[in-house]
């Protein structure tokens, strides 16, 4: 997939403002998940997440839509996960800001918007839950205009629950968010925005490839920890792991490694290829 056909974005929202529901509707509308296979809060993989209605893990999912690859990173909305949010923002070029029409902008949402603006992300403002009797769309609109300095016609008014106008948000992701930048011929660099240990597979990295490409079987090195490993498998999530042969510039995906602990591959570290350093020492 060429860079101009890739869009990397996240969703910023306070707890219970409908972020996971919006992600579910996007997966459904793009055909990433069949309607019969849908379950509420699909990207929230932990039982605790579904029980409490919060997002903890940064589950990245690739959606095919109108000839584009839309890579969504579902970010935490809780105040305790600001570091995880900041890492996911670095992997994106844009963010969908979701505001509950019944509650307006909350303090944590404001903090995450400031993080996104500092990363020069394109913000797509969305007012959710317009179908509820308590919705005050006018007040939420005014708050967003005051925050972003945008026009009212820049704001999407949707119901993630019913799916009303969610397709317009997907179109805006394509139209308003810039494609990723990077150099395919440059030395490989990939940002780790999440990592976890799987009892059966070892350390799994979620990465955004900044330059170059990573191929299955490559020897890799973490620049911050100096840890070295091998790419046992890589690919993208849709939302289940879909193995491939390479991850290329601008793409977001996963890497299964032979590393034994996530301390070797910390969030925010850079993955590169081991062979670059072997050449230097010859």
Tag the structure with descriptive keywords:
282 residues; alpha+beta; Rossmann fold; Elongation Factor Tu (Ef-tu), domain 3; 2 domains; six-stranded mixed beta sheet; six-stranded antiparallel β-barrel; 15 strands; elongated
Q: Largest beta sheet: what is the strand line-up?
A: 2-3-1-4-5-6
Number of domains: 2
Give me the CATH fold name of the largest domain. Rossmann fold
N/C terminus separation: 35 Å
- Based on secondary structure, the structural category is alpha+beta
Along the chain, the helix and strand elements come as EHHEEHEHEHEHEEEEEEEEEH
User: What best-fitting shape do the alpha-carbon axes yield?
Assistant: elongated
> Which CATH C-level class of the largest domain is it?
Alpha Beta
Mean pLDDT across every amino acid position: 88
Q: If you compute it from the alpha carbons, what radius of gyration comes out, rounded to the nearest whole angstrom?
A: 19 Å
How would you explain this protein's 3D organization?
The protein is α+β, with helices and mostly antiparallel strands and 282 residues long. It folds into two domains: 174 residues, P-loop containing nucleotide triphosphate hydrolases (Rossmann fold, 3-Layer(aba) Sandwich), CATH 3.40.50; 92 residues, Elongation Factor Tu (Ef-tu), domain 3 (Beta Barrel). It is 24% helix and 33% strand. The protein is built from seven helices and 15 strands. The strands form three sheets. Strands 2-3-1-4-5-6 form a six-stranded mixed β-sheet, sandwiched between helices. It has a six-stranded antiparallel β-barrel with strand order 7-8-14-11-10-15. The protein starts with 5 loop residues before the first strand and ends with a helix.
């Amino acid at each position: 997939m060429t860079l101009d056909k890739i869009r990397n974005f996240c969703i910023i929202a306070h707890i219970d403002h409908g972020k996971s529901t919006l992600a579910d509707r996007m997966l459904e509308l793009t055909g990433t998940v069949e309607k019969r296979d849908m379950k509420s809060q699909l990207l929230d993989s932990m039982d605790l997440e579904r029980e409490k209605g919060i997002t903890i893990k940064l589950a990245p999912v690739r959606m095919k839509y109108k000839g584009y690859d839309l890579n969504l990173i579902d970010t935490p909305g809780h105040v305790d996960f600001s570091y995880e949010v900041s890492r996911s923002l670095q992997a994106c070029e844009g963010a969908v800001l979701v505001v509950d029409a019944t509650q307006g902008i909350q303090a944590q949402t404001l903090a995450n918007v400031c993080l996104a603006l500092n990363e020069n992300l394109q913000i797509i403002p969305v007012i959710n839950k317009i179908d509820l009797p308590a919705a005050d769309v006018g007040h939420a609109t005014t708050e967003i205009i005051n925050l972003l300095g945008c026009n009212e016609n820049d704001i999407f008014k949707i119901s993630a629950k019913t799916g009303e106008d969610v397709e317009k948000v997907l179109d805006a992701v394509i139209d308003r968010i810039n494609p990723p930048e990077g150099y395919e011929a440059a030395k490989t660099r990939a940002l780790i925005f999440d990592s976890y240990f799987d009892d059966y597979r070892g350390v799994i990295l979620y990465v955004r490839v900044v330059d170059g490409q990573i191929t299955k079987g490559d020897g890799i090195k973490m620049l911050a920890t100096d840890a070295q490993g091998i790419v046992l498998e890589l690919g993208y999530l849709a939302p289940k792991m879909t193995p491939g042969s390479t991850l290329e510039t601008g793409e977001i995906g996963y890497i299964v490694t032979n590393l034994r602990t996530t301390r070797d591959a910390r969030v925010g570290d850079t993955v590169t290829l081991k062979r670059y350093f072997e050449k230097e020492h010859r």
